[in-house]
TrEMBL record:
Pfam families: BTB (PF00651). This is BTB domain-containing protein. InterPro entries: BTB/POZ_dom, SKP1/BTB/POZ_sf. Gene3D superfamilies: Potassium Channel Kv1.1, Chain A (3.30.710.10). The lineage of its organism: Eukaryota, Fungi, Dikarya, Basidiomycota, Agaricomycotina. Residues 22-86 form the BTB domain. It comes from Favolaschia claudopus.
Length: 318
């Protein structure tokens, strides 16, 4: 048998894998020994049961069988700690490490009952690694997590999604159809979110942009019929905002439409409502007195829920 490499100075097995009464040693590829009980491993996985039914190598030290593993000590440790009785869970250092452990547990050693725990762990990484999490979730058939990751990807524009596919080791395990489903979902959400604003009751008569009659305040080319008031021509600045927000949502369907950068153009137009020289109306500009307040209320109460609703209506086809 080939000599194991010397123990990594960075990693040493700890309790419960240092039990002197254990009957088997699992030796990692970098020479870390894990002392375990065969009966525990056999009952955990058919893979181990089969392995221990074969003649064991007891030629080395300590007279107990040593089983060589192709995983590093750190990976083996994280893997064992998810399920080995008496072990405290160590958590994961990175998505890469978690992905290795998922493949070990579900792919190689067939511990399918660990799937819910690993799926939960995967979600920890969704915020910063949505494309990778999407791919891993698709690979193992975790649709709810794939959906969560696709939804998170709405905060990115398409060029950023393409960037995160470069040298991504997880995408090769999913089909082209699955990746395309992510892109189609993103595109469809962008379209639905971008359209949401124009369908809203922005024409509510109480809003400042509909109340304003200051002649110098630019009016919009379109009007709305408001019950009890007839035809109302809203001030153009509300559409300045809706158009900019819509463009932002088309690129990034998860864009925050309450972002001050999106509001500032409309705000400055609203605030300049009565500043021109049409005498007499200056004191009664609803845009100036209530424009910002109404816009903020409209965005919070009507626009944000409408965008969320529009996105909720888009299905991820995986
Ligand atoms: Zn207009
Ligand atoms: Zn006005």
């Amino acid at each position: 048998m080939a000599e194991a490499q010397p123990s990594s100075p960075l990693f040493k097995s700890t309790a419960p894998f240092d039990d002197p009464k254990a009957d088997t040693i699992l030796r990692s590829s970098d020479g870390v020994d894990f002392r375990v009980y065969r009966v525990i491993l056999s009952s955990a996985s058919p893979f181990f049961k089969t392995m221990f039914s074969l003649p064991q190598d007891t030629s080395e030290d300590s007279k107990i069988p040593t089983v060589p593993f192709s995983e590093t000590g750190r990976i083996l440790d994280r893997f064992l700690r998810i399920w080995y009785p008496g072990a405290t869970t160590a958590g994961f250092d990175s998505l890469e490490q978690l992905a290795d452990v998922i493949q070990l547990a579900l792919g190689k050693y067939d511990l399918q009952y660990l799937a819910p725990i690993l799926n939960r762990q995967l979600r920890v990484y969704v915020e910063n690694h949505c494309v990778s999490v999407f791919a891993i979730a698709c690979r193992y058939g975790w649709k709810a997590s794939a959906k969560l990751a696709a939804k998170q990807a709405l905060n990115l524009d398409l060029p950023s999604i393409f960037n995160s596919t470069a040298a991504n080791p997880y995408l090769r395990h999913i089909t082209g159809d699955q990746f395309q489903a992510l892109l189609i979902y993103h595109h469809a959400c962008g379209k639905a979110a971008a359209a949401a604003g124009r369908l809203l009751p922005w024409s509510d008569a109480e809003y400042a942009w509909n109340k304003c009659t200051v002649t110098s305040c630019a009016a919009c080319g379109q009007y709305s019929e408001i019950p009890g008031r007839g035809r109302v021509v809203p001030r153009a600045w509300i559409f300045t905002y809706l158009d900019e927000a819509s463009a932002a949502l088309k690129q990034r369907p998860g864009a925050n439409v309450q972002n001050p950068a999106l509001l500032v153009g409309a705000q400055s137009k609203a605030m300049s409502c009565s500043s021109s020289s049409h005498g007499g109306y200056h004191a009664t500009s609803p845009c100036r007195s209530h424009g910002l307040q109404d816009l903020s209320k409209f965005v919070t109460d009507k626009y944000v829920p409408a965008v969320n609703e529009a996105i909720k209506g888009v299905l991820l086809q995986i």
